[in-house]
Write a structure and sequence with these properties.
With 116 residues, the protein is mainly alpha-helical. It contains six helices and no strands.
Length: 116
Amino acid sequence: MDLRTKAFFIGMIGDFILQQIVNYKGNFAGLKDYFKQHGVFESLCIAGGIMFISTYIYQQLKLPLKPLPLFIYGGILDVLWRQLNLMPSLEHTYYAALNPIQSFFWGGAPMLLILL
């Protein structure tokens, strides 16, 4: 399986896990309203698509497939998405619940999973 396809499935699986956490544990990272707004399948596709395109861009930049650069890249992307408000539905949910440092971490961590 190529890296972008793997990233797509990691995004979907990660989103599914987050949906389950929200269903059973409450409003984790402000995502309850986000999942309510987008629904189960749409949320899965958004997460998978974001991971796919993020990995595609990373590959096009010819950056090394190593943990630290991947983590930093994912964190920077998350900060850029937040600052540019590319996904307004996150503004009052995820971004309101997490400060920029926490958001950087949760943007960087999923990128590491593509190395598995």
